[in-house]
Write a structure and sequence with these properties.
With about 350 residues, the protein is of the alpha/beta class. It has 2 domains: about 170 residues, Rossmann fold, CATH 3.40.50; about 170 residues, Dehydroquinate synthase-like - alpha domain (Dehydroquinate synthase-like, alpha domain, Up-down Bundle), CATH 1.20.1090. It is built from 13 helices and 9 strands. The strands form 2 sheets. A 6-stranded parallel sheet has the order 1-9-6-4-2-3, covered by helices on one side. Strands 5-8-7 form a 3-stranded mixed sheet. Helix 5 packs antiparallel against helix 6. It is globular. The protein starts with 11 loop residues before the first strand and ends with a helix. Bound molecules: nicotinamide-adenine-dinucleotide and zinc ion (ZN). Zinc ion binds next to helix 5 and helix 9.
């Protein structure tokens, strides 16, 4: 393995059923006399859940913003949120994201943009952020993306769909409360859960695979099999397993890379605005030539949980749409390098990528 990384982990992790109720205590040391307020960004699914809202430990001086995750986070949205809060209130003591990958990425990106001038567009990429952000904490309410442990906050900008990626992006604190994911609708639960399955498969299927990635990946895959094949969702262990699988799947990537499925998924996301996790499922379903037995296993999981994966989409796509998606995917060389090795251009061209899209 010729791959050296020096990665930063989440500073503090609180895990366990009911741990949301520890959040107030956890935030306390971050509040001080001259840092007067905290910002909570919360998935708007919870906007009318009165019992849940009472558990958000916001004080009278804090701000609670309910945010829709219908669209994936954009650079424009992050800039506007930051500008609005700075103009009205000044710099907050911290930002807490309570929600899925969308809301956690909003919290991560906004934390950085509070202290880095200009638009977030100029920081899309690796190590472009100049200063550490404010304190940021994540409380996942749906599991699979691994956004709770990753060093990136994925944003859709005018040109690129690319993360603000650096050590400072990593959350200072996460609170993993498996109770919180119980209400996720069945299809969404599956699509997002499959993100960690696919991360774990891709991390160990490619030239950058290594023992570190394999250790996390194997555990995540084992937990996914428990959740999606062996048990019922009503099994009390199921939510605990999935929440930990998401974390492990995320870590399997820290010393490896995603591959073909994620490259194709980025094309679907950028051009057709299909959500990351659904896009992954649409792509993975058709990648038996690349991921063999794992695609068979994925199909068993789909069946076992009675999930619908959209089919025959390509019939409705123009050549221009397929070209545009192939262009997005082709321009992710680090993923192809992992999938096929440094000589990837000898086995992959835009036509091969279009072939995968035409199967969907
Ligand atoms: P999401 O945050 O987009 O939410 C999906 C849906 O689930 C929404 O409708 C939301 O309202 C609902 N929901 C969330 N929690 C719920 C609950 N407890 N009960 C009922 N409904 C609930 O979902 P996601 O799949 O976790 O996140 C996708 C996003 O994550 C994408 O924007 C993607 O780009 C990003 N992502 C980031 C990383 C990273 O490393 N930063 C990795 C993968 C994906
Ligand atoms: Zn993913």
């Amino acid at each position: 393995m010729n791959l050296f990384r020096n990665f930063k982990s989440v500073t503090k992790t609180c895990y366990g059923r009911g741990s949301l109720d520890k959040l107030g205590e956890i935030l306390e040391p971050q509040r001080s006399a001259n840092k007067v307020f905290m910002v909570f960004v919360v998935d708007d699914y919870f906007a009318d859940k009165e019992d849940f809202k009472k558990r958000i430990p916001a004080r009278s001086e804090d701000e609670v913003h309910f945010i829709s995750s219908l669209k994936e986070p954009s650079t424009k949205q992050i800039d506007a949120l930051r500008d609005d809060i700075l103009a009205r209130r000044g710099l907050p003591a911290g930002i807490i994201g309570i929600g899925g990958g969308t809301v956690m990425d909003i919290a991560k990106a906004t934390a950085l943009m509070f202290t880095n001038e200009g638009s977030s567009v100029q920081y899309q990429g690796l190590n472009l952020i100049k200063k550490p952000g404010i304190y940021h904490c994540g409380v996942p309410t749906i599991s699979g993306t691994g956004a709770e442990v990753s060093m990136t906050a994925v944003l859709t900008g005018p040109v690129k769909k690319l993360g603000l990626k650096c050590d400072w992006t990593v959350l200072d604190q996460i609170v993993l409360d498996p109770d919180l994911i119980a209400t996720v609708p069945q299809d969404q639960w599956f699509y997002t859960g499959m993100d960690t399955y696919i991360h774990s498969v891709e991390a160990i299927t490619g030239t950058k695979k290594n023992t570190f990635a394999e250790a996390y990946s194997e555990k995540a895959l084992e937990l996914c099999r428990e959740v999606f094949l062996k048990r019922d969702r009503t099994d009390p262990k199921s939510d605990e397993f999935l929440m930990v699988a998401s974390y492990m799947g995320g870590l399997s990537l820290t010393y490896s890379e995603v591959g073909v499925c994620h490259a194709l998924s980025y094309g679907l996301g950028k051009v057709l605005e299909i959500h990351h996790c659904l896009a992954n499922c649409i792509a993975f379903d058709k990648l038996e030539d690349v991921y063999g037995d794992n695609v068979q296993e994925f199909k068993q999981m789909v069946k076992h949980n009675n999930i619908h994966i959209p089919q025959d989409l390509a019939k409705g796509w123009s050549e221009e749409t397929i070209d545009a998606m192939a262009e997005v995917a082709y321009n992710l060389p680090h993923m192809w390098d992992h999938a096929f090795g440094p000589e990837w251009e000898q086995v992959l061209d835009r036509e091969r990528i279009k072939g995968w899209y035409r199967r969907m």
